[in-house]
Amino acid sequence: MDKEPITLNGLNKLKEELVFLKEKKRPEIVAAIAEARSHGDLKENAEYHAAKEEQSHIEGRITEINDIIARANVIDVTKLNNEGKVIFGSTVYLEDLDTGEKINYKIVGRDEADLKQKLIFFQSPIGKGLIGKNKSDLVEINTPSGVKNFEIKDVKYI
Length: 158
Hints:
By secondary structure, this protein is α/β, with parallel strands linked by helices. The chain has 2 domains: 4-75, Helix Hairpins, CATH 1.10.287; 77-156, Transcription elongation factor, GreA/GreB, C-terminal domain (Chitinase A, domain 3). Helix content is 39%, strand content 26%. α1 (8-37) runs antiparallel to α2 (46-71).
């Protein structure tokens, strides 16, 4: 079983989701199934079938979260001192040298990645291109949308 790197924040969010699914969603769906069952004939009971399908999704997600937590290798960057080096969990402040746009990304594990929140998977093209580089480095990264040129303005461990 391979360990998956995850940030402390990512692990806490997974644990919160697990509690929510077990303590809130699971009892709700059991009640919905019981309610649908009380309506009689299950063959043509759409509510029953929808509730059973949702139950299957919830149980699948609970199993998935338990597996992720079991494989989690928590990396707390606030306890590391890397002096400007881009590592898993660090936040990288970049300037796009082609557009002048300033952007920042936090480098995270697969289950935390969310581009809208500027959380990028460490195995993505940009994640791979940044890890191991240092503050002030110029970086050229091949992305699905073409080559990007960045300057690393700052690296923070927050």
